[in-house]
Design a protein that fits this description.
The chain has 4 helices and 6 strands. By secondary structure, the chain is α+β, with helices and mostly antiparallel strands. The longest helix is centred in the last third of the chain and has 38 residues.
Amino acid sequence: MQEDIDFILDDAADTMKKALNHLESELTKIRAGKASPSMLDGITVEYYGAPTPISQVANINVVDARTLTIQPWERNVLAQIDRAIMGANIGVTPQNDGVQIRLFMPPLTEERRREFVKRAAAEGEQGKVAIRNIRRDAIEQIKKLQKDGLSEDAAKDAEKAVQEMTDKHISLIDKHLASKEKEIMAI
């Protein structure tokens, strides 16, 4: 029975870590006034019939704090990258000069910063919901073990461990959100 509990706890910890990593990757996509190649993560182009991330078909460089350049390895992909960026709706209009694409980040207004903070908070809430769902699933598995003969004390201890793990991950989410909000609101 102890191996089953250990398996449930390890699985819950692993899944919570993945949820936290997903939140971190989503937060990096929310721009904070600075140009960053990670803004283009998740944007794909049609490359020889397969959806391919932009970073795999072009060089992405940060020219200065508010400018990105995208230089594809093949010129025929330039128009597709242009369309993909427009379709992704990241708040930037690409400027195509026939050789490379430039992305100029407009300065953020106070209102736009607040929108980004709300978006980050929504991502954080989704992360918290995911963590709570993982907790619920783990506790359900522990209760099934209890029906199959696990002692009540062992079940309570395992549930307590799951709750502590949940609290730890939710506090980490709160820390990530606080630092992202500080980054977005910094002028």
